[in-house]
Amino acid sequence: MILKVFRIFSGLSHLFYGIFALYDPFYIDEFERFGFSDFRLLIALCQVFGGIGLLVSFHKIKLVEISSGILTIMMAGALITRIIINDDLIQCLPALGYLLINSFIFIKSIKISK
Predict the structure, then answer these.
(1) What Å distances lie between residue 63 and 71, 77, 90, CA to CA?
(2) CA distance 15 to 32
(3) What is the distance between the alpha carbons of residues 48 and 51, in angstroms, rounded to a whole number?
(4) Distance, CA of 57 to CA of 95 (rounded, Å)
(5) Helix 61-84 to helix 2-23 angle, to the nearest 10 degrees?
(6) CA distance 114 to 112
(7) How far apart are CA 99 and CA 19, in angstroms?
(8) pTM of whole model > 0.85?
(9) First-to-final CA distance of the chain
(10) Between vectors from CA 15 to CA 46 and to CA 97, what angle results, nearest 5°?
């Protein structure tokens, strides 16, 4: 049950974040602040497709593994980036939280597929 809740929460969050990163001026400015403005489109699309993968793959556990694995790596990168640019703890917490949630989904989906 908790796995399903985490998948829906993470899937919707990443889907909407990816969409906002494509068009919203706040997120466009954030990518510039992070030093990733050249990669904004790629990162946003990875977030959109990772989110969709978590939402539509209820019977395709391999797709859950791939989606959550990619999102875990992305959130590790996001957390490292925020630390490097000296964001405070409050600014780092979302990346840490999503790193933990996606790691949980990834590990559970691997156990299910065995």
Answers:
(1) 12, 21, 32
(2) 20
(3) 5
(4) 23
(5) 60
(6) 6
(7) 19
(8) yes
(9) 19
(10) 90
Structure tokens given for 18: 């990816």
- Distance between CA 96 and CA 1 in Å, rounded? 22
Distance from C-alpha of 90 to C-alpha of 112, rounded to nearest angstrom: 34
Q: Which of 27, 55, 54 is nearest to 43 (CA)?
A: 27
| pLDDT digit string (tens) for the chain, length 114 residues | 899 999 999 999 999 999 999 999 999 999 999 999 999 999 999 999 999 999 998 778 899 999 999 999 999 999 999 999 999 999 999 999 999 999 999 999 999 887
Q: Enter the tokens of residue 61.
A: 């556990």
